[in-house]
Design goal:
By secondary structure, the protein is an all-alpha fold. 82% of the residues lie in helices and 0% in strands. The chain starts with a helix and ends with a helix. Keywords: Membrane, Transmembrane, Transmembrane helix.
């Protein structure tokens, strides 16, 4: 599905840009703990951007319905990485409570891909 190729590519682009910003723009402005949180957000955003690209390619070559998995990955990026980015720069610890919701969405997305592949 073209949508997930686009969303995946945009998220990969953002992960690279945010990773560079974290390495150069936030160096010395965040403690190592919060810089590590920023890096974790970038890492998981990139992993799932690549996952979205895979879903986009697969949905164009098979009859698998991967829409749910794609939207779960997209929402997972927003909740997981987004909450970590905000946590890193604001240091408002309560935002860390949102992060696991994104993690559950990531897990559910991969489960949906497994189920779809199992049905092949």
């Amino acid at each position: 599905m073209k949508t997930f190729l686009i969303i995946g590519a945009i998220n990969a682009l953002l992960a690279v840009a945010l990773g560079a910003f974290g390495a150069h723009g936030l160096e010395g402005k965040l403690t190592p703990k919060y810089l590590g949180i920023w890096e974790k957000a970038v890492q998981y955003q990139m992993y799932h951007a690549l996952g979205l690209l895979v879903l986009g390619v697969l949905s164009g070559t098979t009859s698998l319905n991967l829409n749910v998995a794609g939207w779960l990955m997209t929402l997972g990026i927003i909740f997981f990485s987004g909450s970590l980015y905000v946590l890193a720069v604001t240091q408002i610890k309560v935002l860390g409570a949102i992060t696991p919701l994104g993690g559950v969405m990531f897990i559910a997305a991969w489960v949906m891909l497994v189920i779809a592949a199992w049905k092949l």
